[in-house]
Specification:
Number of helices: 9
Protein name: Metallopeptidase TldD-related protein
Pfam families: PmbA_TldD_1st, PmbA_TldD_2nd, PmbA_TldD_3rd
Helix content: 10-25%
Family: Belongs to the peptidase U62 family.
Structural class: alpha+beta
Organism: Novosphingobium kalidii
Largest sheet: 6 strands, antiparallel
Number of domains: 2
Radius of gyration: 24 Å
Strand content: 35-45%
Number of strands: 19
Order of helices and strands: HEEEHHEEEHEHHEEEHEEEHEEEHEEE
InterPro entries: Metalloprtase-TldD/E_C (IPR045569), Metalloprtase-TldD/E_cen_dom (IPR045570), Metalloprtase-TldD/E_N (IPR002510), PmbA (IPR047657), TldD/PmbA_N (IPR035068), TldD/PmbA_sf (IPR036059)
Shape: globular
């Protein structure tokens, strides 16, 4: 794996080769990663995985025609062949009047900020194994846990670099550390499974393995002997484990590409009052040690914190350069790149601001409702906003969380759900999208 500077130089070299081969414009990305993971089960080592890889991708433009190509061979001869093939492909491609590099006057300028996203310490296989063993031991020690799906610990490092033919060159690196546990509670037909995990940039920010394991065990035991729930309309409360997915659907619908294709349920909703005026959703790609922090986007534009929803209204679409040209706007610094293909859209570290009441107060007036802790399936229509997903969780009876329930469906429409959304004050800060407990009134629950 190259250093960020060496990776940037390699990407810039490939861009220069593309220009020599006949490209009018080009950009190149270098993506590399290395990771090691250990999995144990029932106190024994079950799997050791080590992976390393690096790829370089080239996108070239010949007039309004473009092509993308990638390779894991970074030798000079291979890069020359890559550039020549990409230019030949572009000349045979159809014209696209929206294709092109990002506006030159908007490019990010170095030196780039450091968000403390890189932890250079490699814990090594023995330490990772000890972490996984401790997590599983704690999970299996919970009364009622009868079996284990295993526990794991991993550490990884990555490098990303981008260079363009119109003046941008930059790179950065990052690290990741994780621990997880999954166990089974109960016997025979009454078995239930649950898990816990945590992922951070720095190993020091991880909870103790015992904390993760105990949480996994407690969750599995709490699910034992689930009842069925009656069908009807009622308040549904989404636990932070799953509430982030609702904001994820919002972000996907805010993509400029979806708006340009007219395939988003937010079409024509830019000025509408979608949420309660007090609700705030923030995108912060500059959060120190954030799992999605980055100084520039996949086109070389600077990233910056931004409110996605303010006073209950959308603040605009999320656009790369191609979407901005189609919509008559400007790119927003949300382009993301892999080692091949055109840019996509991605946010940084997102959070929905905490509400003013505790989780207990949020449910205190619910006579009959559901707390959802797990969602199943992909029943969300991004065009219409129709929402229907399998779920499990707990009953809420007279303002108190009662027993576990399973095998039911929660349904509604995302626009109506947004309008009825009320957050609690239990915001956590360890996910890419951080959302507190959410209460949504008037949803349809389909059970017995």
């Amino acid at each position: 794996m190259l250093s960020p500077q060496a990776a940037t130089d390699r990407a810039a070299d490939l861009v220069a080769r593309a220009k020599v081969a006949g490209a009018d414009a080009a950009d190149a990305v270098y993506v590399a990663s290395a990771s090691e993971g250990i999995q144990v089960r029932l106190g024994r080592l079950e799997d050791v995985e080590r992976s390393e890889g690096e790829q370089i991708g080239l996108r070239v433009f010949v007039g309004n025609r473009s092509a993308s190509i990638g390779s894991s061979d970074l030798t000079p001869a291979a890069l020359n062949e890559l550039a020549e093939r990409a230019v030949a492909m572009a000349r045979a491609a159809p014209e696209d009047r929206f294709a092109g590099l990002a506006p030159q006057d908007m490019l990010a300028q170095g030196p780039f900020p450091d968000f403390d996203a890189f932890d250079p310490v490699d814990p090594g296989a023995e330490t990772l194994r000890a972490v996984a063993e401790e997590a599983e031991e704690a999970a299996r020690a919970v009364a009622g846990v009868t079996n284990s799906d295993g526990a794991s610990a991993s550490a990884g490092f990555s490098v990303f670099a981008l260079a363009t033919s119109h003046g941008f060159a930059g790179g950065y690196h990052g690290s990741s550390h994780s621990v997880s546990a999954s166990v089974v509670a109960g016997e025979g037909a009454e078995k239930q499974r649950d898990s816990a995990w945590r992922h951070t940039r720095h190993r020091a920010d991880l909870p103790s393995p015992a904390e993760i394991g105990t949480l996994a065990g407690d969750r599995a035991v709490a699910r034992l002997k689930p009842a069925r729930v009656r069908s009807g309309q009622m308040p549904v409360v989404f636990d932070p484990r799953v509430s982030s997915s609702i904001v994820g659907h919002l972000i996907g619908a805010m993509s400029g590409g979806a708006i340009a294709r007219r395939s988003s349920f937010l079409l024509d909703k830019l000025d509408a009052q979608l949420f309660d005026p007090s609700l705030l959703i923030v995108d912060d790609p500059h959060k120190p040690r954030g799992v999605r922090s980055r100084p520039f986007d996949g086109e070389g534009l600077p990233t910056s914190p931004r409110n996605l929803v303010e006073n209950g209204r959308l603040t605009g679409w999320l656009m790369d350069s191609a979407a901005a040209r189609q919509l008559g706007g400007v790119p927003t610094g949300h382009a993301v790149r892999g080692s091949g293909g055109a840019p996509g859209i991605s946010v940084g570290n997102v959070h929905l601001a905490a509400g003013a009441v505790t989780r207990e107060a949020l449910i205190a007036d619910i006579r009959e409702g559901i707390l959802v802790t797990e969602l199943i399936g992909q029943g969300v229509n991004g065009v219409t906003g129709d929402y229907s997903r399998g779920a499990s969780g707990f009953r809420i009876v007279d303002g108190v969380i009662a027993g576990p329930v399973a095998e039911f469906t929660v349904a509604g429409n995302l626009l109506a759900m947004f309008a009825q959304m009320t957050p609690a004050n239990d915001l956590e800060w360890h996910r890419p999208i951080n959302v507190p407990t959410l209460r949504i009134d008037g949803m349809t629950v389909a059970g017995d």
